[in-house]
Amino acid sequence: MVVNGALSAINMSTSNWYDVLEVAETASKDEMKAKYQELLLRLHPDKVKEEDEDASKSVEDVIKAWKILSDADSRRKFDADLKLRREKAEDANFFRIITFKEWQHDKEDLSLCRCGGEFDFEEDDASEDVVIVDCDTCSLAIKVTPY
What we know:
Elements: H1 17-21, H2 29-43, H3 53-70, H4 72-91, E1 96-99, H5 100-105, H6 107-110, E2 131-134, E3 141-145
Helix pairs in contact: 2-3, 3-4
């Protein structure tokens, strides 16, 4: 079963289908299935005492989450998308993201922060890993990547 548009079907309020199913990202298919069935029973419109639109939307989200996470291919695609979104969110916290090569080429401009402070990065700090350099004046930082 392949869910068409599974990744694009995530609405703005649902950032993680694992959260919808209330399971860990490492949950097995059996664990997810048990939680899926439990949630369907708990959120079923016949079980909810009052007419509540949010309850029916929750059931729809639970069904959508199960369809995506129960299929190995869809789950793999969702996991990759989730990882990418997390990396982008992490990168959004930096004033600038540059490579070590860019730093070597344009040190003067890249070392200045928008607050007027400086990012003090020495070439000795370079490694094969990512280096986070804080501004000496404010709370901003740059991320220097090896490539």
